[in-house]
Each structure stands twice: as C-alpha cells, then as structure tokens.
Write a structure and sequence with these properties.
two-stranded antiparallel sheet, 57% helix, 2 domains, Arc Repressor Mutant, subunit A, 17 helices, H-NOX domain, single chain, alpha+beta
C-alpha cells in the first residue's frame, strides 16, 4: 500500500475538504495543522502534495466531527468530474459507461482514492468493491465512505440520476451490467484518446516516486477474476514484456511475486470480511476451484482458509 500512497496528488482534494470544514465553522489553521500546507499552497492550483499531507488534513477534520460517515459522504458529494483534471475529462469523453469504468480503474492512482477499488461481475450485476486501506479505524471509515460517495457522484454526473446504484455492503455497491453499454452524452473519441495519452504520461511522471512495482501492483489489484499475465500487464502499461521485467528486476521483484502477494492480500481481506464462501473467493481471485485456492493459501500462510476465517470469528464461510 505504501507504494500506492507515494503517488503525489493535486491540491484539489484538500481544497474540497477545507472548503467543507470552513463552511462548518472551522478555521483554516485548524484544518491545515501539521500538514505543512500553507494558505498560498492551498490556493495555487498547480500545487502537488503527498498522501501523508492529505491524510493529516483528514485527521484534522475527524478530530472535530463525531459522525465520520456523514461528513465523509457530504465531502464525497463534492468530487465531480472537473475535480480530477485529465482523468475526469477522460471519463466524460469516453464512448460508453463501460469504457469510462475501464479508464477509471486503469489510472486510479491519478485520483484521490485511498481505497483499492476493484470491479467484478455477478450474474447480471456489475460490482465495485472498495477495499479498505490499512489505516486506523476512523480514518479508514472516512476514506471508504468518501470514495464510495465520490464514485456514485461520478456515475450520476456521467449518465444522469437514472443510473441506479445499490449499496450491498459497507464497502461494496452494485448496478445492472446493461447500464455499462449506455453511450455517454459528451463522448468524443479523439479527445478521449488524447486524455488517455496524457494520463499515461502523468503516470510516468509520478512513477519516479512510487516505482513500476506500485503501478503493476495497482493493476493486479484491479484485474478482477481474470488472472492477468505478464503480457497483459505490459500491454496495460504500454511497454514491452522485456522492459517491464527489467524495471521490476531493478526494484528487486518479479511479476509472479507481485501477483502472489496481491492474491494473498485479497484472499485475507475477503476471508476476514466473512461474507463469501471459500468457493466464491476462489472464483473471485481467478482460481479454477476451491481446492486449488486452498492449496495456494496454505502455501502463502501455512494455514487453511477455513482456519484463517475462523480465527476472526467468521462462522459463515463454508
């Protein structure tokens, strides 16, 4: 997770949160305390900050409000497409809602999200899962609620209020898959391609602080049930397999290690949630069957999946 958090980000998100805080009667000094963000930096649209600086502003907000989710959702409602710069403009110019979703997940590090957002399909439904980062409870609660609210705002802004979203859990919502085929009113293939190119270039600029490993890990976390290959990852990052291998080797890892690490982390998270049977988790992670998944999980942790789920008191995992 640390690599993902190393991506620098625009000051816009902090501006949105500070505006909310000021409207609620808080002072600028209270909101920016300890963040090393001055008034001048806050007002400069070209300012880029670190994740730790933004997280400090969030903590300052949470110190002054009891209702974490209420505040988070109110702030998340302010994250319209225009707040995301090139990324948001690229969504608006995409041909369909499905194309916009693909672009959104591909360049997620260019947003303000702290959750690990992944997409999968269940029968006729599309499901977005907002994986919880390893933060203290109130901070985690805030970023999950904010990111979910912001995602809903984007969907409604792109397709109108008729786009139906149903929250199925505290960190998951679903929608009818056929809505992804709907054409976007501001679709422009030339502009969409230009935005994608510029998003890719911006990712490369920010990679210097996070490294290829972080970008590949982010890609793997958003690959759904289809087990990604080195070839697919290289194509996704717009580089040759040889170049990708070389970058990863320079950082002391290989593609297989990253894939195993992501699958292990996702398996532990899903088992701890206790809402899915082992066979469902195996399918979600791209394993051929529950037995193959169980063998892999025991190799990773030394324990069977049923034991891992059971130690947290999850009794509904079959």
């Amino acid at each position: 997770m640390s690599g993902f958090l190393d991506f620098r980000r625009s000051i816009t998100s902090v501006r949105l949160m500070v505006d909310y805080g000021v409207e609620q009667g808080l002072s600028l000094a209270e909101l920016l305390k300890g963040s090393q963000i001055s008034r001048a930096l806050l007002m400069n649209p070209n300012t880029e900050i670190t994740a730790s600086q933004e997280l400090q502003v969030i903590r300052n907000l949470l110190d002054r409000f009891d209702e974490v989710e209420t505040v988070a959702r109110a702030i998340g409602a302010r994250y319209q497409c225009s707040a995301y710069g090139l990324w948001g403009y690229g969504l608006m110019c995409s041909a369909t809602a499905g194309d916009a979703l693909k672009l959104a997940l591909r360049f997620l590090p260019l947003t303000y999200a702290y959750t690990v957002i992944s997409y999968h399909e269940e029968k006729d439904m599309g499901v977005l899962d907002f994986g919880e980062p390893q933060f203290e409870w109130r901070l985690k609660q805030f970023v999950v609620a904010r990111d979910m609210a912001a995602a809903t705002v984007l969907m409604h802004e792109l397709l109108g209020q008729s786009f139906k979203v149903v929250e199925t859990s505290r960190n998951t919502f679903a929608f009818s898959r056929d809505q992804l085929s709907r054409k976007l009113p501001q679709a422009n293939p030339v502009t969409a391609e230009l935005c994608e190119q510029q998003c890719r270039a911006l990712m490369e600029q920010r990679r210097s602080s996070a490294g290829v490993q972080a970008i590949v890990t982010h890609y793997l976390q958003n690959s759904g049930t289809r087990r990604p290959t080195l070839m697919a990852a290289a194509h996704h990052l717009d580089m040759s397999e040889r170049t990708l291998k070389r970058h990863l080797q320079a950082e002391g890892v290989c593609f297989r290690q990253l894939l195993e690490r992501v699958r292990k982390d996702n398996a532990e998270r899903l088992l701890n949630q206790g809402t899915m049977a082992i066979s469902e988790i195996a399918e979600r992670l791209g394993f051929s069957d529950a037995s193959t998944f169980s063998q892999a999980f025991k190799r990773w942790t030394g324990k069977a999946p049923s034991y891992w789920a059971g130690k947290s008191g999850k009794t509904d995992v079959a």
